[in-house]
Design goal:
Layout: H1 4-25, H2 27-35, H3 39-49, H4 71-81, E1 83-88, H5 91-103, E2 106-108, E3 115-116, E4 134-136, H6 145-151, H7 154-164, E5 169-178, H8 186-191, E6 205-211, E7 222-225, H9 234-239, H10 248-255, E8 260-263, E9 269-273, E10 279-281, E11 289-297
Antiparallel strand pairs: 1-9, 2-3, 2-4, 4-5, 5-11, 6-9, 6-11, 7-8, 7-10
Helix pairs in contact: 1-2, 4-7
The structure holds fe (ii) ion.
Length: 310
């Protein structure tokens, strides 16, 4: 039987080893992840790192798949509310992405050893392998020409550039399913980002989300806590991404249940978020959800999402 103090020393040694590896292998990324959790550091770094940008206006020749956009108003809304809702993908683009999802191999719970192919997007949820919470197309998403075009869409890039105040660096994209499943443990939910958490991918970064199936309260809507990209409790800044260990109810209590927003919308509906706010993908209770995410940041740290496979 392992003694309590042995457990403590084991954890401490493991923590030190991980920090040493981070510092020696990826020093820029390591220092960002250690320091960007503090708002004051993020503000300083963002100001120092600010580089001259291309105009964030959409020129006459550039046609966005999202139609006409008020880039300034969208960036201002994200700055105050953490998120802007109201983007819309055209039906043909949604259909192309659904076709892609039906014809491409995804991976259950992002495990490269658990390939899975859906038999038509209407039948998803039937005959799923055991313990299937999510299915991500991971790096196979790069095969989608529709997704490649969206990553370079002038409207999406204009919003990202305006919000970041610097040239937008593409960090990664993911198409993934979330399936209806029993609640399970906190650890199981945390592994697939179904508990409140915030991300630390850069000093400033932004994520676009588009639903590819209709999403209501029973199909795992994305949820965020309005305004929590700033003014976090000091403890929540200190522990950073380990906030995901805290019970959702405690986080809600802390920042106000009235500020929790569940984002529902039909297939094609989109929103754009500052992922430094508390957010989660709620667990679907009845219907599955297919969603696309595209992320941009101000710095290029190489493939930061390599571990997640996209
Ligand atoms: Fe997240």
């Amino acid at each position: 039987m392992i003694h309590k103090s042995e457990k403590f020393w084991y954890k401490l040694a493991n923590y030190c080893l991980k920090n040493y590896q981070g510092l020696t292998q990826e020093p820029r990324l390591f220092l960002m992840q250690k320091s960007a959790r503090f708002e004051i550091v993020r503000d300083w770094e963002a100001r120092l790192l600010k580089r001259p940008t291309k105009s964030s206006e959409i020129s006459q020749e550039d046609v966005s798949v999202l139609g006409k956009l008020d880039v300034n108003a969208i960036a201002a809304t994200i700055e105050t509310d953490s998120c802007y809702q109201g983007l819309q993908l055209p039906e043909d683009v949604v259909q192309e992405l659904l076709n892609f999802a039906s014809s491409t191999v995804g991976y259950i719970n992002r495990d490269a050893n658990r390939p899975w192919r859906c038999k038509g997007t209407e039948k998803v949820g039937v005959d799923l392998p055991e313990n299937s919470r999510v299915c991500s197309y991971m790096s196979n998403g790069k095969q989608s020409s529709t997704l490649k075009k969206l990553e370079k869409d002038p409207g999406i890039l204009a919003i990202a550039t305006k919000f970041l105040g610097a040239e937008a660096v593409h960090m990664g994209s993911e198409i993934s399913w979330s399936f209806p499943v029993a609640a399970g443990s906190h650890v199981q939910q945390r592994e697939v980002a179904q508990v409140f958490h915030y991300d630390l991918d850069d000093y400033r970064f932004i994520k676009f989300f588009f639903y590819l199936t209709d999403v209501d309260i029973s199909s795992g809507p994305h949820a965020y806590i309005r305004g929590t990209h700033k003014n976090k409790k000091l403890l929540h800044q200190v522990i950073g991404t380990r906030c995901a260990d805290i019970d959702d109810e405690k986080i809600k209590e802390c920042y106000g249940a009235e500020n929790v927003v569940n984002v529902c919308g039909k297939a094609g509906f989109g929103f754009v978020e500052n992922p430094l706010c508390f957010h989660k993908g709620s667990r679907p209770t009845e219907k599955p959800r297919l969603m696309l995410q595209i992320e941009y940041a101000i710095n290029d740290y190489g493939n930061i999402h390599e571990a997640r496979g996209y």
